[in-house]
Every structure is written in structure tokens, then in C-alpha cells.
């Protein structure tokens, strides 16, 4: 134990966030204390909860009720129908969670899914998503998205852009920063002393010697050679179609992919419900379930809390690893 609970921001209250938070508490209880930042009116009816005034109280409350750091919202939550009036509250819940972690009052931040359009409509939210907002709050220029599950950790170098834009966006600077941030995080937050990184090529068969594309020869290969000369343990550029079978995965700690689907298809195939979104490069630990608001099933009781539970468990593991490294 780190002695500190995990902060969980409420996310979009009209989505499945409140109900999976309640179900995660039912599963974890005192075994993994966390507190929920939001309006208790938005929790499923009958959820045992206790309002706390300071995060430390969650360590004692979690055994019998979901600890709630109350943040009043203007409007009630109607499942499946986001209300722009609540947008500012969603944003404030995230900002408050970040502040508490930075002040040393929580060990990590876990974030429930948001709905970007509702935030834009209701509060003029200027950021593309959660990750960029967190980087802004932390004053960090470059962060990296990792998807993590027991069977695989994977990092996409380019993320939410059209496939046609990937070759232009994939620069040596972006790739180098992504690799360095990833290596540092594996050492500091995952306790891997000498991480092994497997880097995919951009093109089929990693370009096949230039026959199927030249980025591997012109950009990816020379950069990896330079980083290997510095002592980084990097394999690649590799053909992505042979990187994700069990034997290949045993040879590395993280796979670094060049674009979104190259990274997310294998991890979602291996562990659709248990994947966790991790933001690397922040001065604090942030995890999130790897799914959206699921408006279509919000309020039905059918939402699966597995990814949120995995995100909370991974946040604790990372906090313990980071604390051990400071000793």
C-alpha cells in the first residue's frame, strides 16, 4: 500500500461511469481504496456511499461505502442523454483529481470516460480529449498513450488521425520522444529495470527492403540504430503481422506501433474487457478504462466494470513501483 487512495473522476454522468464506479467499489472495497469525485445524485440509486472531506478519509470509509468527494453539478443525470449544463462539472472533477494527486493527497488519478462533444457544447472545451487536457494541466508538452493488459503493452506513436496523414505525422522527433518516454515509464512506473522495446515498421513487412515503402530505411531504422548505440534495448523495425503471437510477445516488454489500429487491434483482440489506457510522461500516474461512455447501455445495469477495475489495480501497481523507486 502507498498509504494514499486513488482519485477517480466521475466522467460523463449520463454515461456508464457512475454505475461502473459503484460496481468497482463493490468488488474492491477496502482492498483497493479509491474515492469518486462527482455529484452523489448521479450514482445509481441505492449505492452505499459516504461523503468525505479529505482523500485520506477514503482509506477507512472504503470498507463499508463508496467514498465520495462531493462536487455539485447543476443538473441531474439522465442515462444516455448528456446535458451540456453538466460540462463544467465534468471538467472540474478532472482538474480537482489532478490537483489532489499533485498535492500528494492521492496516489494516482483514474478517469472515467468523458463525452467530448458535450464538453465542447457546454463549456467550450478546447482540447481534443482527456489526454491533452491532462498534459495541459500538468504543463507537459508531450505525452504518450499506452494500452496495457496482462498479455500485452502497446504504444501507438500517432493516435487519432486519418491513416493518410500518418506518414506526414511520423517524424524522427516524435518517434524518439515516444520511445524515450516509454522506456522511462517502464523503469519508473512498472519496475522493469532494463525494458525491451519492439518497434513496428510503418509498411507491410516493415517495407521489405524498400519494396513496400521507404520509411523504415529513411527514418525508423536509422533512429533505432542510434538509440541502440546509446544502450536502449530495441528490436525493429519489425513486421507488425508477426509481432503479436505468444512467442513474439515473450521477447519484449512493450510493442511500439506507428499508428492507432496497428496498436489497438491486437490488444483489443487479446483482452477486450481488461485493457487499460495509461498516459505516460505526466508527473503523476493516470489510468483510464479503455472504453467510452456507452450511452446505449447507460442505466441498464449491463455495463461491465472490468476495465475500470483493471485501471484502478494498475494505478495502484504503478504507484507502488514509483514509490519503491524513490526509496
Automatic annotation (TrEMBL):
It is found in: Cytoplasm. This is 4-hydroxythreonine-4-phosphate dehydrogenase. It comes from Rhodovulum kholense. Pathway: Cofactor biosynthesis; pyridoxine 5'-phosphate biosynthesis; pyridoxine 5'-phosphate from D-erythrose 4-phosphate: step 4/5. A divalent metal cation binds at residues 160, 205, 260. One of its GO terms (biological process) is pyridoxal phosphate biosynthetic process. Catalyzes the NAD(P)-dependent oxidation of 4-(phosphooxy)-L-threonine (HTP) into 2-amino-3-oxo-4-(phosphooxy)butyric acid which spontaneously decarboxylates to form 3-amino-2-oxopropyl phosphate (AHAP). InterPro entries: PdxA, PdxA_fam. Its main location: cytoplasm. Substrate binds at residues 130-131, 268, 277, 286. Its cofactor is Zn(2+); Mg(2+); Co(2+). GO terms for molecular function: 4-hydroxythreonine-4-phosphate dehydrogenase activity; cobalt ion binding; magnesium ion binding; NAD binding; zinc ion binding. It catalyses: 4-(phosphooxy)-L-threonine + NAD(+) = 3-amino-2-oxopropyl phosphate + CO2 + NADH. Pfam families: PdxA (PF04166). Binds 1 divalent metal cation per subunit. Can use ions such as Zn(2+), Mg(2+) or Co(2+). Keywords: Cobalt, Cytoplasm, Magnesium, Metal-binding, NAD, NADP, Oxidoreductase, Pyridoxine biosynthesis, Zinc. Belongs to the PdxA family.
Amino acid at each position: 500500500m502507498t498509504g494514499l487512495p486513488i482519485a477517480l473522476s466521475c466522467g460523463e454522468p449520463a454515461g456508464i461511469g457512475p454505475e461502473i464506479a459503484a460496481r468497482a467499489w463493490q468488488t474492491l472495497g477496502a482492498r483497493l481504496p479509491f474515492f469518486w469525485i462527482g455529484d452523489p445524485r448521479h450514482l445509481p440509486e441505492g449505492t452505499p456511499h459516504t461523503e468525505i472531506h479529505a482523500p485520506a478519509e477514503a482509506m477507512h470509509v472504503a470498507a463499508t461505502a463508496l467514498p465520495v468527494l462531493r462536487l455539485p453539478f447543476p443538473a441531474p443525470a439522465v442515462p444516455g442523454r448528456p446535458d451540456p449544463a453538466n460540462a463544467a462539472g465534468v471538467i472540474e472533477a478532472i482538474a480537482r483529481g489532478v490537483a489532489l494527486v499533485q498535492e500528494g493527497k492521492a496516489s494516482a488519478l483514474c478517469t472515467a470516460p468523458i463525452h467530448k462533444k458535450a464538453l465542447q457544447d457546454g463549456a467550450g472545451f478546447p482540447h481534443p480529449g482527456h489526454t491533452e487536457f491532462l498534459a495541459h494541466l500538468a504543463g507537459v508538452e508531450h505525452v504518450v498513450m499506452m494500452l496495457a493488459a496482462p498479455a500485452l503493452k502497446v504504444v501507438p506513436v500517432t493516435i487519432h488521425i486519418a491513416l493518410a496523414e500518418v506518414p506526414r505525422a511520423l517524424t524522427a522527433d516524435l518517434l524518439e520522444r515516444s520511445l524515450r518516454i516509454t522506456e522511462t515509464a517502464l523503469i519508473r512506473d512498472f519496475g522493469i529495470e532494463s525494458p525491451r522495446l519492439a518497434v513496428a515498421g510503418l509498411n507491410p513487412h516493415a517495407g521489405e527492403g524498400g519494396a513496400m515503402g521507404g520509411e523504415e530505411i529513411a527514418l525508423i531504422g536509422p533512429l533505432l540504430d542510434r538509440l541502440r548505440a546509446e544502450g536502449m534495448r530495441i528490436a525493429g523495425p519489425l513486421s507488425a503481422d508477426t509481432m503479436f503471437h505468444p512467442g513474439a510477445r515473450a521477447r519484449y516488454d512493450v510493442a511500439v506501433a506507428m499508428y492507432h489500429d496497428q496498436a489497438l487491434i491486437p490488444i483489443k483482440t487479446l483482452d477486450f474487457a481488461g485493457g487499460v489506457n495509461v498516459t505516460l510522461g505526466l508527473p503523476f500516474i493516470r489510468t483510464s478504462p479503455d472504453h467510452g461512455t456507452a450511452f446505449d447501455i447507460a442505466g441498464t445495469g449491463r455495463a461491465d466494470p472490468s476495465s475500470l477495475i483493471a485501471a484502478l489495480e494498475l494505478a495502484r501497481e504503478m504507484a507502488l513501483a514509483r514509490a519503491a523507486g524513490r526509496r
